[in-house]
Design a protein that fits this description.
Strand content: under 5%
Helix content: 55-70%
Largest sheet: 2 strands, antiparallel
Radius of gyration: 42 Å
Distance between the termini: 131 Å
Strand order of the largest sheet: 1-2
Number of helices: 16
Order of helices and strands: HHHHHHHHHHHEHHHHEH
Shape: flat
Structural class: mainly alpha
């Protein structure tokens, strides 16, 4: 039996013991240098292969878009009106080739280590640069614009095809060189399987929990002092606004609040483009795909409302126009951007009137609403005032005193009072600890009516409010009547105590 050893010829050995070197050269150092050389060449070759494969994909996508541009240009040249300029025909052809999603316009992500120094431009930018070069050549030659454009674009296509042919040849050579040698990276597991049997876990019974059925389940989900009243007024947690924030890190802002809509910098930049300037609008959208998102439309409508409120009607209407433009591009589907601009720039197309009517109607509604708000504010300037709960003594001869429970209570009554005190917001606690009724009223004024009533009820329940009488002037008629009432009240209380004592003796 003849054994074929030719497969071992593909092994690349850098530490062969039979290697002979010059006597003045260290053999180990020579072998180590040979290893480094082989590894470096192999790494560079693999990097070139990855780069060429990625460039091949980019060129394929670019050739496909050039073909689409040529077909679209021929179609528009045949259907173009006599009054249509070459720039308009080229623009319409570009819009037919433009994609709507970022997946169509964005080139694929390069492999690790490939084209790390420069950012790969979008396909729309490549096509725009190609058209600009052709346009410059056509303007210099002053020939038939259609034939010149067609010839120029076909010339660029041939250049890309030639580049693609050279790339494929170079890639084939590198892959052939890479496959000549067997390396450790070529070793792989052909087949491997393992099986582990596990015992099935027995289902565990969930412990039964007792629940209480209530008429208002929502009331059990949060603290009663942290709810909102019917008018939308904030709860007792707002009582801390009287204190300045000492540490900025304590302030947490919620950027994802859906109810708080504001125009972004990108949306404001798009709103500065004048109505009817669809060329710059298309260019802006091609360079900033995120502007088509729904939040930008909502932000521009809010900007239009605020601008109309500030007395800027022209800017407000322009914001409405740009907001609806983005909305139409998003709602027309995957190719919405190209479809919208194709229809809106076609002379006499019914989409122009429909879009302009929508812009006028939306702006009219905003203008009407702003006028209604202005009339409401002029007719009732105090409509925004809210009802408040304040603590005041009814009798002018009495005063309300604040009693704070001890931080370390010993009696049961004090413990209960301290528990009630600890449930109050920090701002209310500080106001009570100050002992000043004005500060307590200031905090109560920031609460809703229902919440303030609940706080006052808890203050009375915990014995933290007491009414004390002042000095009675006996020289006045009112003072003498007050003294008489107090004497009669004291006499009646004394008779009741004596009657109770006698009854106790009789029972004994």
């Amino acid at each position: 039996m003849v054994v074929n050893y030719s497969k071992w010829d593909a092994l690349e050995l850098s530490d062969d013991s039979d290697i002979e070197v010059h006597p003045n050269v260290d053999k180990r150092s020579f072998i180590r240098a040979k290893q480094n050389q082989i590894h470096q060449q192999r790494s560079e070759r693999r990097h070139q292969i990855a780069t060429l494969k990625y460039e091949r994909i980019i060129n394929d996508g670019l050739l496909q878009r050039i073909d689409n541009l040529l077909n679209s240009l021929q179609k528009h040249a045949q259907d173009a009106a006599p009054s249509q300029t070459p720039d308009e025909s080229i623009m319409n052809a570009l819009m037919d080739c433009a994609g709507d999603g970022a997946d169509d316009d964005e080139p694929p992500i390069p492999p690790p280590g490939v084209h790390t120094q420069t950012e790969q431009p979008r396909y729309s930018v490549m096509m725009a640069s190609l058209v600009d070069q052709v346009k410059k050549d056509v303007e210099d030659k002053h020939q038939d614009w259609f034939k010149s454009y067609l010839k120029g674009i076909q010339g660029h296509k041939r250049k890309v095809e030639d580049l693609q042919t050279e790339l494929m040849q170079k890639l084939a050579e590198l892959e052939k060189e890479e496959g000549k040698k067997i390396t450790s990276d070529s070793i792989h597991t052909g087949f491997s399987v393992s099986s582990v049997s596990r015992e099935k876990e027995k289902p565990t019974k969930k412990p039964r929990s007792e629940t209480t059925e209530v008429l208002n389940p929502g009331a059990l989900k949060g603290d009663s002092l942290k709810r909102l009243d019917s008018a939308g007024q904030s709860s007792g947690a707002e009582a801390d606004v009287e204190d300045e924030v000492k540490d900025p890190s304590e302030v947490v802002e919620d950027d994802e609040d859906e109810e708080h809509i504001e125009p972004t910098k990108l949306g404001k930049a798009f709103a500065k483009i004048k109505m009817g300037d669809y060329k710059n609008c298309l260019q802006f959208i091609s360079e900033n795909r995120d502007v088509v998102k729904e939040r930008e439309t909502d932000g521009l409508l809010v900007e239009a409302f605020n601008a109309q409120m500030d007395g800027k009607p022209e800017y407000a209407k322009n914001c409405v126009h740009q907001a609806l433009l983005l909305q139409y591009c998003r709602s027309l589907g995957r190719d919405g951007v190209g479809l919208f601009f194709k229809r809106i720039t076609t002379p006499g197309h019914q989409a122009q009137k429909a879009f302009q009517d929508d812009v006028n109607d939306t702006y009219a509604r905003i203008r009407t609403r702003i006028a209604e708000i202005a009339e409401e504010r002029a007719a009732n300037p105090k409509a925004t005032e809210t009802e408040q709960i304040q603590l005041h003594a009814v009798d002018p001869n009495t005063s309300i005193h604040i009693n704070i429970p001890s931080a370390s209570p010993t009696e049961e009554v004090e413990v209960k009072s301290r528990e009630i005190f600890d449930t109050f917001p920090p701002g209310l606690q500080r106001a009570l600890e100050s002992g000043k009724l004005d500060k307590v009223n200031e905090v109560l004024g920031k609460m809703s009516v229902e919440e303030a009533e609940e706080v006052v009820e808890k203050l009375g329940e915990g014995g933290m409010l007491s009414v004390e009488e002042g000095v009675i002037d006996g020289t006045t008629e009112e003072g003498r009547e007050k003294l008489k009432e107090l004497e009669e009240k004291a006499r009646a209380e004394k008779l009741a105590e004596e009657e109770a004592a006698r009854n106790a003796d009789v029972d004994g």
